[in-house]
Specification:
This protein is an alpha/beta fold. It contains 16 helices and 25 strands. The protein folds into 3 domains: 242 residues, Glutamine Phosphoribosylpyrophosphate, subunit 1, domain 1 (4-Layer Sandwich); 180 residues, Rossmann fold; 145 residues, 3-Layer(aba) Sandwich (Rossmann fold), CATH 3.40.50.10490. The protein is globular and about 75 Å long. The structure holds fructose -6-phosphate.
Length: 592
């Protein structure tokens, strides 16, 4: 949700540098963008509606500067307009600010500032903070003014601020990610919402934590705890991401690159330090109750996890979407284990569930892709999924890696982690065989046939029921076709009324104890005119179109979602949608 990238150093091309770096964060928001940089005694601001990825910085006639900040927006408060795009100026254009997150009490502060004579040019919450800082700076130093202002605002945020007559850049965070890159030159720093913004420049990073402020100036960087005002020491961490893994390479889009990478990413998830798996399995054994929590796709993965535990380790696990977790808070105590599943490790709703559980004394484990993310850093135990940067907004490779980890955990809780591992290794090798151009071409035939339909449905049973829900998310978000997933047995209780001649219905079939029933459900659909696309290890009479998947038993959720990911991608391309940046969405959802 919103990308932030700022530079402070000696390089004179800071405006170009932040624009180019920000393009790597466009997955975080892409409705409008803007830049601010120091030029002589002035601050120059340039904003536009649209995607920063479409911009060539050279065409913008930007001046030279060694201090600059850029922002790509995902609108929350106020429509997609140039006026609402960031950066925002304060009343007398002295303060300029970019922001990711939401200030919940901005209206009260705004009213107060209006009484003091401030006039606002946008509908955003962000502009209010710029004005508030300027208001304080009439009596206090720039640094003090920022510290005072962030104490007054409520909500989750990451901000970067500059002042016209000060050689300083100040950043603060609460609940939204902000990472400092330590440049190669003395006194050179980058501030970004995510590492790919500056990965080409440095792999040395400092993670800003909640309620911390960072002040860069005079070639120095200092950190403060905003509650106590005390200076704090921060650790520099060297990360091992490489630039290529964050780039598209020969692929047309990140989404298809990431789908194809599943050949390798699954192996990386499976062959990791077994200690992580053992520790979480032990915590599940010891807990009186365990909750799997996630949002969107990660929420569907959590739901699959509950099925896997019921089947493999005969253990009841509760599954809850992050945004619904507060409804269960009365059941959470010191003997509860919360397992947070998140690709980004920054999802606000999952973080909030974690905060609620922590307050009640529960133990927290997490399964995350972005190591050192907020969720990872605040967990007692972390299992990294090691999928590498996932840049397409629609999650693909992170999903299957999360599913692999949950499968390992379920086997580990049954005392058979090695059985689970061997099954997963076999599955990964069969996926390797499956993911070839012929397979994608076969799926393209069905994509071409159904590309103009209005609605489609996906059915599954058992652990493939949540996969039907996940399949629907994938199709919705990139093809914009109305898609819904159902438990096969639920159709006759209502949704079957939606089926008419040639309505496409994907049946997710596994060679398990649900097989016969899901095939009967497919028959019921077919009898009403539905067109059945079977994702299954064997071709069945009821299928009008068959997409073969390997016969893998308990890992069927992993193999069954992959062809739907490919179908969703191909539908997006055929319908001329951008599969990497679907409309209205952003990759990292750091607002509630
Ligand atoms: C859909 C998708 C989202 C995310 C959800 C949670 O393809 O990616 O539904 O799964 O926003 O994000 P993370 O996993 O980063 O917590």
């Amino acid at each position: 949700m919103c990308g932030i990238f700022a530079y402070y150093g000696e390089k004179k091309n800071a405006p170009h540098l932040v624009i180019e770096g920000l393009k790597n964060l466009e997955y975080r928001g892409y409705d409008s963008w803007g830049i601010a940089y120091k030029n002589g005694g002035d601050i120059i601001v340039h904003k536009e509606v649209g995607k920063i990825g479409d911009i060539n910085a050279k065409d913008l006639a930007l001046g030279e500067s060694s201090v600059a900040m850029a922002h790509s927006r995902w609108a929350t408060h106020g429509g997609v307009t140039k006026a609402n795009a960031h950066p925002h100026f304060s009343e007398h254009n002295e303060i300029v600010l970019i922001h990711n997150g939401i200030f919940e009490n901005y209206q009260e502060i705004k009213k107060d500032l209006i009484k003091k004579g401030h006039k606002f040019l946008s509908q955003t919450d962000t502009e209010v903070l710029a004005h508030l800082i300027e208001q304080h700076s009439r009596k206090h130093s720039f640094e003090e003014s920022v510290k005072m202002a962030v104490k007054e605002i409520e909500g989750r945020y990451a901000i970067v601020v500059m002042k016209k007559d000060e050689d300083k850049v100040i950043a603060a965070r609460k609940g939204s990610p902000l990472i400092i890159g330590v440049g190669k030159e003395h006194g050179e720093y980058f501030i970004a919402s995510d590492i790919p913004a500056f990965l080409a420049q440095t792999n040395k990073v400092i993670y800003l934590d909640d309620n911390q402020i960072c002040v860069i100036g005079n070639k120095k960087i200092n950190f403060y705890d905003n509650a106590t005002n005390e200076e704090i020491k921060k650790r520099i961490i060297e990360i091992d991401w490489d630039v290529e893994s964050a780039e598209k390479g020969e692929f047309a889009h990140f989404m298809i690159k990431e789908i194809m990478e599943q050949k390798d990413t699954l192996n990386r998830a499976i062959n990791q330090d077994p200690k992580n798996i053992e520790l979480v399995a032990k915590a599940i054994e010891e807990a009186e109750s365990t909750y799997f929590v996630g949002c969107g796709t990660a929420g569907k993965v959590a739901m699959v996890g509950a099925y896997l535990f019921a089947k493999i380790s005969k253990k009841q696990i509760h599954f809850v979407f992050g945004s619904e977790f507060q409804n269960y808070k009365d059941f959470i105590n010191k003997k509860t284990l919360l397992v947070c599943i998140s690709q980004s490790g920054e999802t606000a709703d999952t973080l909030e569930a974690m905060e609620i559980a922590k307050e009640k004394g529960a133990k927290i484990a997490s399964i995350v892709n972005v190591e050192n993310s907020s969720i990872a850093r605040h967990s007692d135990i972390v299992i990294p999924i090691k999928a590498g940067p996932e840049k397409a907004v629609a999650s693909t490779k992170a999903t299957t890696s999360q599913l692999a980890i949950l499968t390992l955990l379920a086997y580990a809780c049954d005392g058979g982690v090695e059985i689970g591992k061997q099954l997963l290794i076999r599955t990964a090798s069969q996926i390797n065989d499956m993911l070839n151009p012929r397979y994608a071409d076969h799926i393209k035939k069905i994509a071409t046939k159904i590309k103009d339909i209005e609605s489609m449905y996906i059915i599954g049973r058992g652990a493939n029921f949540p996969i039907a829900l996940e399949a629907a998310i994938k199709l919705q978000e990139v093809s914009y076709i109305h898609a819904e997933g159902f438990a096969g047995g639920e159709l006759k209780h209502g949704p079957i009324a939606l089926i008419s001649k040639n309505t496409p219905v994907i049946a997710l079939v596994a060679n398990d104890d649900c097989r016969k029933e899901i095939l009967s459900n497919a028959q019921e659909v077919k009898a009403r005119g539905g067109y059945i696309i079977g994702v299954a290890p064997t071709n069945e009479e009821v299928f009008d179109f068959w997409i073969r998947v390997p016969d893998v038993g308990a890992t069927s959720p992993i193999v069954n979602i992959i062809p739907v990911q490919i179908l969703a991608y191909q539908l997006a391309v055929l319908r001329q949608n951008d599969p990497d940046k679907p409309r209205n969405l952003a990759k990292s959802v750091t607002v509630k």
